[in-house]
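Notes, Module 5: Reading structure tokens.

Key idea: the token line is not a picture. It is a compressed description, and you learn to read it the same way you learned to read a sequence, by spotting repeated patterns. We will look at two proteins. The first is printed below with its tokens.
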Amino acid sequence: MDVAFVSNVVFPFVKGGAEKRIHEIGRRLADDHEVTIYGRHFWDGPKEVVHCGMRLRAVAPEVELYNDDGQRSIVEALDFAARLAPSLRSHVATHDLVVVSVFPYFPVLTAKLCTLLTDTPLVTTWHEVWGDYWDDYLGSLALGGKIVEQVTAKTPQHPVAVSGVTAEKLAEIGPRRDRIDVIPNGINLTQIRDAPLPTESFRRDGQPGFDVLFVGRLIEDKRVDVLLDAFDRVAATYDATLGVIGDGPQAAALRAQAQGLDHADRVRFLGFLDDSEDVLGHMRAARVFASVSTREGFGITYAEAMAAGCIVIAADHRSSAASEVVGDAGYLVTPVVDDVAKALGDALAGNRPTVDPMTRARQFDWDKIARQAESTYQRVVNEK
């Protein structure tokens, strides 16, 4: 096959979940297939280079992706979609299929236009479906976001969702559920196993890292406020410490909340860590990974934490795919202080889940995910 991926950002030059998925699947496909990534020019050197066996083709210059308020730039998305058109249109007939990450949405529409006069199928990868979350994200402009999302969902395509939760939400606004393939995100088991442990200890027993760890963007949906209050209830009983890795618009408020806790000295905010291996090292060192986020299209940190040997605590919530990732290999709780505190106590007391977390994590190995993607892409090509 000749596979083209479209993503405005390209891993490892920009680090994020969607671009990492393309990188991990693409470099494995490149062993047996031709792989091209159309993106912005975030790498050094010429506009077209070969990286990890994949051809990187820059169709637009590097720009800032976020506005001053921390939201993804709509202007950037529109600009990339417009600049994508000439290059993709001139090469699209050479590709057997085009795979587009759905967020931002506009490049999907550009890719569809480019494929109209060819038999090259369009595959889309849906990491989330926002729906009513647009109200919180854009406020008075939310209707525009909803319309663009719905138009994108109704565009003829071969949709792939990263979880059943995302697939169900997509089916509400676009294709039938039985037409949506589910291919989860993956993890690098070797990288997690070999990640160096932190050199500093924040634990009372002198071991590296923290007893309890959170990793993620500091936004309201992650419910770090609930985790902080729940941790405060059990910190002294289990002589535990909590580390918070990440940054975001809620950072200042959460730091202020932590300072008011009875056990504020046991909580440390590490901010955003540039090196993913530092994050994985903290997971390896932690006893418990707790993230009671109420909105997760997949939840890659849960799989990584299980692979690192953590007991995972996640939210049982209709808008989170955590249950699909964690299953019986962790604690799934209602994201309220009482329930989270109880789960923290159970986990810190050493009560293990019924399924070994590391065994559960192996099903998300990137090698398996790439084979699943290859099979799906080949089926789409054969059906055209």
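Here is the second protein, with the sequence above and the tokens below, as before.
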Amino acid sequence: MSEPSRQRGWVVGHIWRVPVVLSPGWLVAAVVLTLLLLPFAERLAPGASSAFVWLLALSAVLLLFVSTFLHELAHAAAARRYGMVVHRIALTLLGGHTELSDRAPGAGPSAVVAVVGPLTNLALGAVAWGVWRVLPGQGPLEALILALAVTNGFVAALNLLPGLPLDGGRVLEAGVWGLTGRRATGTRVAGWVGRMVAVAIAAWALAPALTGGVDLTQVLWAALIAMFIWTGASQAIAGASVEEALEQLSIAGLTMPAVLLAADAPVSAADAAPPGHGVVLVDPSGQPIGYLDGAASAAIPMHLRAATPLSAAASPLPPEARVPVGLDGRDAVEAVRQAAARSPVMAVVAPDGAVIGLLRATDVVRALRGADG
């Protein structure tokens, strides 16, 4: 699962009006997996034609991707159940993911949305295993069904490992989130556990080297999986810092105090403003209409400041460029995002509508980026 991205691919259908996208990486994975399975397919169908062997290997790969799709579909269904917006279901080089436009409304829903994916694989594996047990022969069909059972079991087990970015990491994140009340703490813990999982997988793959029995294929696959988990876990840890910054962000804490002056007052009147204060220009009714541009004000010579109106050195302050002083967290970021579309500097207003200061969009961005190092 993830938030919306600009990933490229081909839309092959829609479910609940949600696009199902095949990424270019999916084709690469399909070809590579088919090639890897050819030797096994040849052993399952000795004496068969090359076309049949290729078809057998490709069928196994397609069954695996169908399982992956059902895994992601389960995530999407659970997310919709909790009112989250599903942006797309994508099948990619490393399997797939469900892109969500909204965050889980709480720790419980987050855990449910995460765990239904691997549970779906467990159910598919159990059904395939049961069917295989009752089939009489040992031919290609039986082998395909057994492969379906084994691969779904493997996918479920891998995804249930308790480290981000795996589904088990999401469950761990939700558990810590529920205990501490802080999602960022859960993300950080699950991210570090994810790094340990990545190291453990790499160590497991390399352990046979101590006895001289290294399986190169095993090492390559383990390295790919470990690298994927390590990268995702590291991104999650970095994201936790931003999340913590969001939790601490408040409009009041970033507001620059301001004095209110009439638009036709001289620039020299602003020179008396206390250090660290901005200047807001108001119309005769007391409504803010602009703010003093520091660079423009500094460019006015001293001998002209008393004769130059503030409006000559001001930038406009549209009515939409206002944010309530009481906002914090994501609500504050969203309000700033909307206001910044009209002006890079916005008026901060009290509940009664009175202007109490100015806020620069760059200060908000700096506060968030500062947490990210």
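Summary for the second protein:
- The longest strand covers residues 86-92.
- The domain at 251-371 is CATH 3.10.580.10 (CBS-domain).
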